[in-house]
Amino acid sequence: MKAITLDSKSPSKLSLTQVQERVLEFGEVKVSIRAAALNHRDEWCRKGLYPNIQDGIILGSDGAGVVEEVGDGVDLAWVGKEVIINPAINWGQDQKAQSKEFEILGMPRNGTLAEKAIVPADRLVLKPEHLSFEEAAALPLAGLTAYRALFYHGQVKHGEKVLITGFGGGVAQFAFQYALAAGAEVFASSSSKEKRSVATKLGAEDVFDYSEKDWAEKALKSSGGIDLIIDSAAGNTFNDLLQVLNPGGRLIFYGATRGNISELNARKIFWNQLKIQGTTMGSDQDFEEMVQFVKEQEIKPLIDQVFPFTDCDKAFDRMKDGKQLGKIVLVP
Amino acid sequence: MKAITLDSKSPSKLSLTQVQERVLEFGEVKVSIRAAALNHRDEWCRKGLYPNIQDGIILGSDGAGVVEEVGDGVDLAWVGKEVIINPAINWGQDQKAQSKEFEILGMPRNGTLAEKAIVPADRLVLKPEHLSFEEAAALPLAGLTAYRALFYHGQVKHGEKVLITGFGGGVAQFAFQYALAAGAEVFASSSSKEKRSVATKLGAEDVFDYSEKDWAEKALKSSGGIDLIIDSAAGNTFNDLLQVLNPGGRLIFYGATRGNISELNARKIFWNQLKIQGTTMGSDQDFEEMVQFVKEQEIKPLIDQVFPFTDCDKAFDRMKDGKQLGKIVLVP
Predict the structure, then answer these.
(1) Which residues form the Enoyl reductase (ER) domain (chains A, B) (predicted)?
(2) How confident is residue B53, by pLDDT bands cut at 50, 70 and 90?
(3) Domain range for A39
(4) Cis peptide before A108 (omega within 30 of 0)
(5) Distance from CA of A298 to the nearest CA of B (A)
(6) Which residue on chain B is closest to A261 by alpha carbon?
């Protein structure tokens, strides 16, 4: 079968190459991939930013397709089913945090950027009917991360004011859509004029340009105070975010594209009873709830562009440049 | 009546002086104070660290005594009752955070360091019988802050591992006692050998000297990981605390004696799903639950020393020097 693998000898560090299919082990299934999607994680793997990265690994955490074959111990009824793959493996039983055995599909374990993907059968959920394969493939990693941030940790409530920073990223867009569907008043920020205008079209109450020095004052004035912020920048931006939060407000973050958090205003946090909560991915329960929510609310992921596997270099470069608005999808 | 007031002309900035008693307004009561207790807040008022500090104000947030007189609109049955005063005024209806009208007894409003204190009747709760007036006076501000930190925000559970930093402070000691009573395994830290040995005697699993460079490693090794930390230092110590926390752990803080929080390890927070939560004082509901808990568990506040009002300078100086182990109490 053809697959997109890490290849340190290739100029792009990627190869679209022929890979030997392996035999299924107990409890595994083989999914014929109809669409896969990229995450920053894939680009970071290409850059070698994770430990123990090895040539030949098939990248990709997000995928949707049709079950082609099942291993011993798996219900035969799965064969022929249209499915989404949950890329969070071995979360464990604790809803609060993942176990030490936790891993994400697509490194070190072979992932979804292939004609066939082999995964444990318990990673499958049925594809909601309102989603195409491309849309379904866009959902798993980012949709799960956004769901846990907004609902499990954020406990978003109808009528609350929610700010999604860095609108444009995959998780941010899901958080934006989910928050709207949950009945929140949703605000967004982006340094890109184009992305700001998309957020407005999609229903943002107001959108802010965080590259402006006084954006936090503007946001405070426009919103009257935010109850819940979903962020992935961290770095030196946190004091701005604290300034925008109402007393009792929550700041949930799932990344640190701007690095470690510097000089936090401690008094502001304790006097205003603020919560800062880190989050990543989600439990199996989060994933099931998320797919159910997407089904009920008929949420359609935003797709930036669909590339054939043969254009994988272009697709990865688009992720690298951060120009995408929505998920970047690849089809075999 | 005699009262301890702020006096910028006195070398100690305090005066024990004769103050005119005023007439009760609607809904107020007059409490004959049997004991009052100091908090850092009183010392900070003496130092002029709050805005709008005025000479002549009667300091003191903590007090217990006997109701002597009630104003219009107050049930006469209160007269003669032994009471504790809740110093948190106008918290409001939101359990998540205090209202903008929130204030603390003892500045700007006259406080408890007087023979008589006038407070709204809804600030009274009956003194638990197992407490002397001195012990009851030690409870309100610090006991409330500790209760909210540990239970409302910290959601402490039986069998969890809890670390109380800076053992010796009033809030820290209540948090320590409450956590033990709640069935947690309790650890503590202090830079004072004497305070560490008291913590051990009181039931700490292990006690750490945070002035040692490798204290966090020792704490991690000894405890096997902490679920909940109650802290008031903030500053540059937070990364040490994050290192000690289990995945899904909570770090609740109610002060920042070491200043703002610098260089937080963002990845540690989001990957380990950690929560950092600020807290201060507590709602009326927190106060009622706290007194009920103290009653049921027969918790006795630790008293450092009891001074007569005439020794108020000595009492404040002891607070300033931070040598106390338990609450500093003053009696008229």
Answers:
(1) 9-330
(2) confident
(3) 2-139+301-331
(4) yes
(5) 29
(6) B264
